[in-house]
Design brief:
heterodimer, A: 2 domains, disordered N terminus, B: 380 residues, alpha/beta, Elongation Factor Tu (Ef-tu), domain 3, Rossmann fold
């Protein structure tokens, strides 16, 4: 019996995906996708996607370079215009236009430029200004730590419980298989709070502080990441809340307010796009045991089943960094995002061929679905197996004590209950 | 829009205001406003030549030289700090959306009063960029440059006796030295010894003739190895007798040497034999092709950071890393620019150019010109 485990395709240090999740038992076969197809079909499915990927890689050229440069030019223009209009707070429409312009510029910079460049989508251009390895984005989170949690952990172990830290971001319960705790009663509230300060959420997430609490990351390592986060966020805040406001002199406060609003608008927008990528209903999550030793076809399948798209206009796709093509992005994270619409036709055809779910819908539909999920999973589940272990242990203990006291009521000798 | 801004820029550039403006743009204050991006990311949107941190240049003219070579005359932006004869630049052009970078020697005199300088390149059939320069490059093309690099340069005080030896395209950096000395009014003895396949194949043929005629202080010796000139006094590849014939005592002559590996090896051996190696400065021009003798390629390369191991196939570590799906940084791919320098954790490597074998633990190596000798572990 021979089978091919996922091989690293683009193992740059910022994009190690896809790397296999291996088991100590090398003969074990992953069970991902067996409810949909056979191992042979999975292999064929993987090969067909590889062909699509290679076709796009072979055709990269001037048009893709011109596209990203045009986006950058537009973004820089919006940014400069936004900063300039802050000098006119006494003309409210002008000031508002400035805020809108700066918001749009930050959204473009973070999503269609930053996110995609840091995936290495434009590394083939060999232009140092848009190299994934070196790019730094206009957000408080340092690129280096984001690339580790996002490009590596999230894109490799997509939707695998315990491996992909993006399932609920360690804050909200968005999937049935996240063990329930009472704190999740505040689920919708946490989501709204995270939405408003999303860039700081991304920053905190990148430090992996929870891994240090669990003893899986050293305190020294955390300290390095925290220092990096302080340095980066310090620069960002100095720019938006001190230097630019000061440059507008008497309009210090209105400029500060305008910049803050632009940052928050960007937070809200990116949060909503990103939550629609993996959290609508019917998006699948996976268990580590099932994914160990997975093949390339199984890795691909996991990406399709674990992501959701949003339909919309061309402008909508650009403003969402083409993350509205989340399925295609997860299949091919390092091909330029402008190619996702073209690739989507082939991916959809493949999904029909193998009778797979292709989760897509209007923005309003996907948003509503996410909101429903947040409320649904806030409620304590009736199924006791969905609760966190600490409650299960507590209940087991209580049950044992009840049994013991019941026994003593009957005059029997109390027996010691094992914990 | 572009043309308009170019003209504005050209008209203003001589003014002092321009220098002040550039200083302001390059200042940390402006840097804090454009953070996390460099100010050049913004200036580029107006015009790429305005960059204050990056060196950029425009092609002024492409001259087709003899021997399938091209000289590209460049006008750099104000970031360019100038060059010393003998130095090279990393020269990047964008072709179909991809920036291709190669190392080229500066060939012009450092005394040009128009501020232009040039690089000269021989078109190799397999050299993508040199072919592009030769066939497609046009005036006004934008070139992404590095500052001039390299310590293959003349001393500040040029000694009374100088010997320049070159082979083939290796003439380029020496041509820059020769032209500069001529234009500086240098008048002390200098021997220019150049090996080319034939007169037809010789770069700068006419200008060498002119210098030989105009500069009595230059002893111009050209040896054509395949088609010797009729009545030539000397022939064949480099030999100590070629120097003796012109009465050169290498022990007391500062010598600059540039050319292919074979020439460099013979000349170095000659200098070492008479104990004159202190007088010799040399630079390789072209990396020799490596014999992919499978029997020689043994062991495993471990790319430590990515946890990948591959069987050594005898190619350079850079090529093998790329074959394994890694994307190490690189520049010239000929051991010059140091962009690809990577920490070697342990194992022995041999230099593709010199054959030198090194087995130190934890040392930086240029992965483009080193191949493994047995097991090697690098931080990639």
């Amino acid at each position: 019996m021979s089978f091919k485990i996922v091989e690293p395709l683009s193992a740059t240090n910022h994009n190690e995906a896809p790397k296999p999740l291996t088991s100590e038992d090398s003969t074990k076969r992953a069970t991902i996708g067996l409810e949909y197809m056979t191992y042979e079909q999975l292999e064929e499915f993987g090969n067909e996607l590889d062909v699509i990927r290679q076709r796009v890689l072979d055709s990269l050229g001037q048009e893709d370079a011109d596209y990203i440069r045009k986006v950058i030019k537009t973004q820089r223009g919006l940014e400069v215009a936004g900063r300039a209009l802050m000098y006119l707070p006494f003309i409210p429409p002008a000031w508002l236009l400035g805020v809108a312009s700066l918001s749009a510029s930050k959204i473009l910079e973070n999503m269609e430029i930053g996110h995609n460049v840091m995936h290495g989508q434009y590394d083939w251009m060999n232009d140092p200004q848009i190299q994934g390895r070196d790019y730094e984005w206009d957000i408080v989170a340092p690129s280096e730590d984001w690339k580790h949690t996002h490009n590596y952990l999230h894109h490799t172990y997509t939707n695998i419980h315990g491996k992909d830290k993006d399932i609920g971001y360690g804050l909200v319960r968005i999937d049935e298989d996240q063990p329930y705790k009472w704190k999740y009663l505040g689920n919708p509230l946490y989501a709204v709070a995270l939405m408003l300060v999303f860039e700081f959420g991304v920053m905190a997430h990148g430090t992996q502080w929870d891994e240090t609490l669990k003893g899986k990351q050293s305190k020294e390592e955390l300290k390095v990441k925290v220092n990096r986060a302080f340095r980066k966020s310090g620069k960002q805040m100095a720019k938006d809340y001190v230097v630019f406001p000061a440059l507008t002199g008497p309009f210090f406060l209105s400029t500060l307010a305008g910049n803050a609003i632009a940052n928050v608008v960007r937070n809200i927008w990116s949060f909503n796009i990103i939550f629609c990528g993996h959290f609508p209903a019917d998006v699948k999550t996976f268990q580590k045991e099932d994914a160990e030793n997975e093949t390339r076809g199984q890795w691909y399948l996991r990406q399709v089943l674990g992501s959701a798209n949003i339909t919309g206009s061309k402008l909508f796709h650009i403003m969402s960094g083409n993350l509205s093509y989340q399925i295609e992005h997860h299949l091919f994270p390092d091909i330029p995002a402008r190619r996702y619409p073209e690739v989507a036709e082939d991916v959809r055809a493949l999904c029909e061929k193998y009778d797979l779910q292709y989760n897509t819908g209007r923005f309003s539909k996907q948003l509503f679905s996410v909101a429903t999920q947040l409320v649904k999973y806030a409620k304590p589940p009736k199924d006791k197996s969905k609760w966190a272990n600490k409650y299960k242990r507590k209940w087991a203990k209580q049950a044992a004590e009840r049994a013991a006291s019941h026994n003593s009521d009957n005059g029997a000798k109390p027996t010691k209950v094992a914990a | 829009m572009h043309y308009f801004s170019v003209r504005m820029f050209t008209v203003n550039e001589s003014r002092e205001e321009m220098a002040v403006l550039r200083k302001i743009f390059a200042s940390p204050l402006v840097g804090s406003l454009t953070s996390p991006h460099s100010v050049d990311h913004y200036l580029d949107q107006v015009h790429p030549m305005l960059a204050v941190h990056n060196v950029r240049a425009r092609v002024v003219e492409v001259i087709h030289e003899t021997g399938h070579a091209s000289t590209v005359v460049l006008k750099a932006n104000k970031t360019w700090a100038g060059f010393k004869p003998g130095q090279h630049v990393q020269f990047g052009v964008e072709v179909e959306g991809t920036r291709r970078i190669r190392c080229f020697s500066v060939s012009s005199s450092d005394q040009r009063d128009d501020g232009h300088f040039s690089v000269s390149v021989k078109a190799h059939p397999d050299g993508y960029v040199s072919r592009f320069l030769h066939q497609e490059m046009e005036p006004r093309t934008l070139v992404y440059l590095s500052e001039a690099e390299g310590d293959f340069i003349l001393p500040d005080v040029v000694p009374g006796n100088l010997l320049l030896i070159s082979g083939g395209s290796g003439i380029t950096p020496l041509m820059s030295m020769l032209r500069s000395l001529r234009d500086r009014g240098h008048d002390r003895p200098l021997t220019f010894l150049h090996y080319a396949r034939s007169a037809h194949d010789e770069m700068f043929h006419d200008e060498l003739n002119a210098i030989a005629a105009d500069c009595p202080w230059v002893t111009m010796v050209r040896i054509y190895t395949r088609e010797p000139a009729p009545g030539a006094e000397l022939a064949g590849r480099f030999d100590i007798d070629h120097l003796k014939h012109h009465g050169i005592d290498i022990a007391s002559t500062l010598t600059y040497l540039c050319g292919p590996a074979g020439l460099i090896k013979t000349v170095r051996d000659t200098f070492t034999e008479v104990g004159a190696e202190d007088q010799l400065r040399f630079e390789y021009f072209k990396i020799p092709s490596v014999d992919l003798d499978a029997a020689d390629a043994t062991g495993t390369i471990t790319f430590d950071d990515s946890g990948i191991e591959v069987a050594n196939d005898g190619r350079s570590i850079l090529e093998q890393a790329e074959a394994a799906g890694l994307k190490p940084k690189y520049g010239c791919r000929m051991g010059v620019c140091s962009t690809c320098t990577t920490q070697k954790k342990h194992g022995a490597i041999s230099n593709i150019i010199s054959g030198e074998v090194r087995a130190n633990t934890d040392e930086p190596i240029k992965i483009c010109v080193n191949k493994p000798v047995g097991d090697v572990c690098v931080a990639l």
